[in-house]
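Here is the promised in-class demo. Please do not try to memorize the tokens; focus on the logic of going from shape to residues.
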């Protein structure tokens, strides 16, 4: 069955501020899920806390709205329990690169087959516009009494340094392009980052639609080949991508910076040690003590049902 983007829309009211870049990200996700025809039952959106954290409520697939900074370990647990699931993480820059930065790095080292959609708006939106880790030094969006005193993290450079095997940047207002990046990230087998530049119309009066319009260009229009075609060219491609990631002010590239299909995923590494893992992952096994299941399916379902919200 082929599903339309609207088939992935839940009935929950989308309460982001009118004009927020999150709408473009949401539209891109609906379209990507539909074009990949992903089974809602086998797709999970995991978020942290923030305006971006509301994303799972608006999508008719399985979803978990976790704690601030903890979406990545939660998603890792889901994926490693059942590697057949498609798991997509949606978080803000504060969430992933502030409180969650250690987990962000750990995901790259492991190369687990997960997709991150980073809502990169340079501020902490939900808590009213404080500087996030992607805000550059000396900038002063309107909620700051004085210019930012800290240097910014560059998510593309950090992902490359941490070992992500798919690293891309999109822009929330170019929905078709972003949709393609999200599709590629989901299809990639390994840790994938899509850093999405996103205007926060309420608190960030610097990174506006006009700001991005003047600067953004597509990597694919500049003769850029991000793909590692053979393992020997990995180092050269990473260095080129890192240098490209420093282009960050007057001109801002979007597109795929780097993709390496040759690094084993964590799931494959586990399977090398436990060769039944991929066939028979933990989620398919009975939890047993002394050879007996500690809980039968019916009791488990009864307990579990108390804690889930069903979106019809
Ligand atoms: C452990 C913890 N610390 C702080 C908070 C308060 N808090 C809620 S959302 C948020 C920041 C959200 O910013 P970001 O992750 O950039 O997401 P955005 O709202 O911009 O999408 C903070 C600090 C919290 N909920 N939990
Ligand atoms: S505060 Fe900013 S990020 Fe949050 S919904 Fe409003 S515009 Fe969007």
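The designed amino acids, position by position:
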């Amino acid at each position: 069955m082929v599903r339309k983007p609207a088939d992935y829309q839940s009935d929950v009211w989308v309460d982001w501020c009118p004009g927020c870049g999150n709408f473009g990200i949401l539209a891109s996700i609906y379209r990507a899920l539909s074009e990949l025809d992903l089974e809602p039952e086998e797709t999970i959106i995991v978020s942290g806390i923030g305006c971006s954290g509301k994303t799972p409520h608006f999508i008719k697939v399985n979803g978990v709205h976790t704690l601030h900074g903890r979406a990545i370990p939660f998603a890792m647990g889901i994926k490693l329990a059942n590697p057949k699931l498609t798991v997509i993480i949606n978080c803000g820059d504060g969430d992933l690169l502030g409180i969650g930065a250690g987990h962000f790095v750990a995901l790259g080292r492991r190369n687990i087959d997960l997709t991150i959609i980073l809502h990169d708006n340079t501020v902490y939106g939900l808590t009213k516009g404080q500087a996030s880790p992607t805000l550059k030094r000396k900038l002063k969006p309107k909620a700051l009494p004085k210019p930012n005193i800290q240097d910014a993290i560059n998510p593309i450079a950090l992902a490359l340094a941490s070992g992500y095997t798919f690293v891309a940047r999109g822009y929330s207002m170019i929905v078709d392009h972003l949709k393609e990046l999200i599709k590629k990230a989901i299809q990639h087998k390994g840790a994938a980052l899509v850093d999405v530049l996103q205007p926060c119309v309420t608190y960030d009066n610097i990174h506006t639609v006009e700001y991005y319009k003047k600067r953004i260009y597509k990597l694919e229009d500049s003769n850029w080949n991000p793909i590692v075609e053979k393992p020997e060219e990995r180092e050269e491609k990473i260095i080129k991508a890192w240098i490209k990631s420093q282009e960050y002010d007057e001109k801002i590239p979007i597109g795929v910076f780097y993709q390496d299909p040759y690094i084993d995923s964590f799931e494959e590494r586990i399977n090398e040690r436990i060769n039944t893992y991929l066939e028979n992952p933990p989620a398919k096994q009975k939890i047993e003590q002394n050879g007996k299941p500690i809980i039968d399916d019916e009791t488990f379902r009864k307990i579990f049902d108390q804690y889930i919200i069903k979106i019809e």
